[in-house]
Amino acid sequence: MVKGKLELVICGAAGGIGQPLSLLLKQSDLISHLALFDVVNAPGVAADLSHINTKSTVTGHGKDQMDEAMKGAHTVVIPAGVPRKPGMSRDDLFKINAGIVRDLAEGVAKNCPGANVLVISNPVNSTVPIVCEVLKQHGVFNPRKVFGVSTLDAVRASRFSFETNSSIPPSSRVTVVGGHSGTTIVPLLSQLPNNFVGSLSKEELEKLTYRIQFGGDEVVKAKDGAGSATLSMAFAGARFTLAVLQATVGGKTGLIESTYVNLAADADATREFKAKTGLEYFAQDVEFGPEGVQRIVPLPTLSAYEQGLLEVAVKELKVNITKGTAFITDNSKI
Ligand SMILES: NC(=O)c1ccc[n+]([C@@H]2O[C@H](COP(=O)([O-])OP(=O)(O)OC[C@H]3O[C@@H](n4cnc5c(N)ncnc54)[C@H](O)[C@@H]3O)[C@@H](O)[C@H]2O)c1
């Protein structure tokens, strides 16, 4: 197999997110080898993408070929697992996806222990702690290199804010903190320019916030049993992955995205927050650097409304984090 300078692996590459995400990443010159791993259909997707005349070589890896796909990879993106059906919460996916993500994290520890790991599989609030605990058990955990991809919340926040008031460009980046599910999603709309929040009534602000928190449900309902967000997620996943690559190998500085990380990634910046909330994981603005997380950007001053949302989020996050961590450290409790 041709091994290029920068190998990026997509686990679950033949899925609803995996395919369009692979297509978007095939367009990046930063990647020399795109390795597509899935338990079904990976060779077909790889053959198809490999005809596109961009720089990267594409290889497909089936069920028993995880190790060869991951060997020496720079970055591993994980959109593997089952998506939601109408009426399901992200937490309902835990039973199946926890085991899938654990096995993939074992593969990372064994084959590419220094890789950046980007976790898309839900419930992200719990699957990220699973990855971190597996890497810890293998003695290869680096908190600067494990990311929960919550970018879709920021993408939705930008789009829905623009729909509410067109003076906010749709490309504006909204900081979204907390976690990635329902009320753990806390969009900091007070940070938007032009007194955006001031231009909204209380009801409008609550409606917009709710839509950002539960936007995924709109897609699950409209797809009517055929899955959850895939195309918008692929867009968000590619945006996040490319930011990580541009900072780690592309030499770009100052790139910031909100992402769900272990707070040990920047212990100094988060010490006070951790002591106050008791949380070990939290989504916050992160600036990327050559080693992954360069720094966690301190929380800005929140409005009273956002402070209330944060308190609700913290309570739920604690439960989600404990569930993920215990899945690895104390399997008998699950
Ligand atoms: N982070 C987010 O914002 C976000 C948004 C939408 C969906 N998701 C999550 O992403 C995940 C994937 O969603 P989807 O719509 O692409 O689902 P999908 O069912 O269309 O695709 C999942 C793919 O994973 C593969 N797979 C299953 N087990 C695997 C394993 N052990 N190793 C490798 N591949 C494996 C399947 O064969 C399938 O091709 C779900 O957990 C979903 O909830 C996350």
Task: Give an overview in words.
43% of the residues lie in helices and 16% in strands. With 334 residues, it is α/β, with parallel strands linked by helices. The chain has a domain at 7-149: Rossmann fold (3-Layer(aba) Sandwich). Strands 3-2-1-4-5-6 form a 6-stranded parallel beta sheet, sandwiched between helices. The N and C termini lie far apart (40 Å). Nicotinamide-adenine-dinucleotide binds at residues 11-12, 14-18, 37-40, 79-84, 93, 97, 100, 103, 120-122, 124, 149, 152, 180, 227-230, 233. Nicotinamide-adenine-dinucleotide binds next to helix 4. GO terms for molecular function: L-malate dehydrogenase (NAD+) activity.
List the helices and strands and how they pair.
Elements: E1 7-11, H1 18-25, E2 33-37, H2 42-49, E3 57-61, H3 66-70, E4 75-78, H4 94-111, E5 116-119, H5 124-137, E6 146-148, H6 151-164, E7 176-178, E8 185-187, H7 202-223, H8 231-248, E9 256-262, H9 267-277, E10 281-289, E11 292-296, H10 304-329
Parallel strand pairs: 1-2, 1-4, 2-3, 4-5, 5-6
Antiparallel strand pairs: 7-8, 9-10, 10-11
Helix pairs in contact: 1-8, 4-5, 5-10, 6-7
* Percentage of residues assigned to helices: 40-55%
Distance between the first and last residues' Cα: 40 Å
How much is the average pLDDT? Answer: 96
SS class: alpha/beta
Largest beta-sheet characterization? 6 strands, parallel
How many E strands? Answer: 11
Sheet-strand content, in percent, reads 15-25%
Task: Describe the strand arrangement of the main beta sheet, using strand numbers.
Answer: 3-2-1-4-5-6
How many individual helices? 10
Label the overall shape. Answer: globular
Top-tier CATH class of one domain: Alpha Beta
CATH topology of one domain: Rossmann fold
CATH architecture of one domain: 3-Layer(aba) Sandwich
**pLDDT < 50 stretches:** none
The whole-angstrom Rg is 19 Å
